[in-house]
Amino acid sequence: MRTTVPMLSTPAEVDAWLTEAGWYPGRDVGNDAIGAIAAVVERYRAYGVEIDPSAAALAFIREHAFLRAVIDTTPKNFAIFAPRLVFKGDAEETAELAGKLGAELFPVGYDTYDGSTLLLDNSGRFFFSHHTGAYYLGSEKYGALMSLMSSEMVDAEEYFV
User: Fold this and answer.
1) Contact (CB, 8 A) for 61 and 39
2) Which 3 state secondary structure label does DSSP give 7?
């Protein structure tokens, strides 16, 4: 039997989901976020890709870094909100997607089931890089996380320049 977290359809439901993971209004992990950002920038650089967090990515990371929110319980799948390079090929894929979007992208989280990456662009739009392709989640946190949890994602091609 498959057990999932209920679909999130309101900002209050998103906040409740994040609260279960340890989030609270005004949360700021400060210097721990800065260290995690520096580490992921170096990992991407090691694969020949330069990334730099936008103001939107930095704000999201400072507020949400290191949260582990349940996406599904069977099989176990969590959303980990942290800047990370999950697979070495992700660096090149992120750079390619950024070029097609005409926007800088920065990793702000991933899922533990497939290692898919949650990316934020310099204008605050969320994208999801999955082994089946790249998807647009939304233009702000609440819409993006509702899309992530419902798996109702739009192909990122619709946002290519």
Assistant:
1) no
2) coil
